Amino acid sequence: MREPEHPRRDEITLTGVLHALSDPTRLAVVRQLARDGERKCGTFEVGVAKSTLSQHLRVLRQAGVTRTRCQATHRYVALRRDDLDELFPGLLDVVLEAPDGVVAAR
């Protein structure tokens, strides 16, 4: 299985991250990763078809929010927390703590 491409830290943009986090399904994926750590691709509880989940995971990976690694025939997804905290301090905390559909000002 081929390793997917990931943006380098210096290629991650605020607009790309905000776009990736703007979708409720992708936000649910990120919340699960923040809570549980790395997960196997098929184990997310988001209520969408596998093909739809794959598209959401691709958007998160291409935006630099997640990292996907291959092991044998499985793919594992992890949050790029260190990179995001370095580039945009506090952003992920605000987004993860906000109620669904609302990002409160601090």
Provide a short characterization of the protein structure.
The chain is an alpha+beta fold and 106 residues long.
Distance between the amino and carboxyl termini: 43 Å
Shape: globular
CATH architectural name: Orthogonal Bundle
Quote the CATH topology.
Arc Repressor Mutant, subunit A
Tell me the β content. 5-15%
Annotated CATH homologous superfamily: Winged helix-like DNA-binding domain superfamily/Winged helix DNA-binding domain
Quick one: biggest sheet? 3 strands, antiparallel
Structural class: alpha+beta
For the biggest β-sheet, the strand order reads: 1-3-2
Count of helical regions: 5
Helix percentage range? 40-55%
Number of domains: 1
CATH class: Mainly Alpha
Which value, in Å, is the CA radius of gyration?
Answer: 13 Å
The ordered string of helix (H) and strand (E) elements is: HHEHEEHH
